[in-house]
Amino acid sequence: MISVTRIFKAPVVILSLSALECLSLESIRTSGYNAWRAFKMRRKAMIVVTGGSGFVGKALITRLAQQGEPVRVLSASGRKAFAGLGQSVEVVQGNLYDAESLYRAMIGAHTVFHLASAQWWGKKRDLERIDIRGTQNVIAAGRSARIGRLVVLSHLGAASASAFTLLRVKGQVEEMVRTSGLAYTIFRSGIVFGQGDTFVNGIAQLLRANPFIFLQPAQGESLLHPLYIGDLIEALVRSMEHLDTVDQTLSIGGPEYMTFNEMVRTIMRVTKARRLIVPVPPWTLRAFANLLSRFFPYFPLTSQWLDLLAANRTAPMGALYDLFEMQPRRFEDTILTYMRGRPYRIELLRTLLRRRPRRIA
């Protein structure tokens, strides 16, 4: 791997224009013009995050602020959502459909992490509006502001021809980014879990929804590749220093594969919520989820949730080590640190009582 930090730790370093010119020639040969341009802008320049109020966005902004990186967040709710993160976090009030605020957020940025998505609670029209139209607007603003690199988070299994809405939309977003003319990095990740995640904590809530049974799509044999949020954030941050991640689509996951059934049984064991697992045809669960969403907009079971179980979704084992020399954390060992004893029945009630906003993002 070629990294900026390693380049500057080479035995001979001449901090002069001629040395940088030589480096640029080598970069052009190995990673292309986009890689060199992204590197030139990477000197404590501004980092922009969209979707900063989400699970991944919050974790990324917190990490960058702790490192003292200058961070700019595009947020419809303004500064109050990011109070306490320090002066290095600048908030631009606006949204993905306001060209002026998007441009103001991106001007002078070397890296834009585009994380805004309706992947959990949105309906199909929300996915098309936020993920597709929103990405189109981000790309247009990025071109105008001449950003260094656009980093996008996608899913393992994303494909523009997929029969499943979430994976199809993510595949379309990937194609837009690849043909944008911007330097880019696309991360396809497995299920991201952590203390504030929706998927794994959603399973724990569903286990509390019925004291006797848990409805599982089919036999739960789809193969998953869960990735801890801390490891994902570390990979995102390290990618800024790696030239060879520019104009690449990276598939990453944790240190183990597991079926959905194995994941559910692990969560039952950790949370001490023993239930009889009842296999149900996936179309039945999808219809059930669509019905419940009319009355409980934030019910943990959604169509997008089921899309992620539609097929095996795995990355090459050891990808994080090969890319960034990282040793990701194991699923059960990690959820033991925050799931045991957690009041998931109360969390489920709070989730059911949440009202859907008039407009997502």
From TrEMBL:
Residues 51-191 form the NAD(P)-binding domain. InterPro entries: ComplexI_NDUFA9_subunit, NAD(P)-bd_dom, NAD(P)-bd_dom_sf. This is NAD(P)-binding domain-containing protein. PANTHER family: NADH DEHYDROGENASE [UBIQUINONE] 1 ALPHA SUBCOMPLEX SUBUNIT 9, MITOCHONDRIAL (PTHR12126:SF11), NADH-UBIQUINONE OXIDOREDUCTASE 39 KDA SUBUNIT-RELATED (PTHR12126). It comes from the Bacteria. One of its GO terms (molecular function) is protein-containing complex binding.
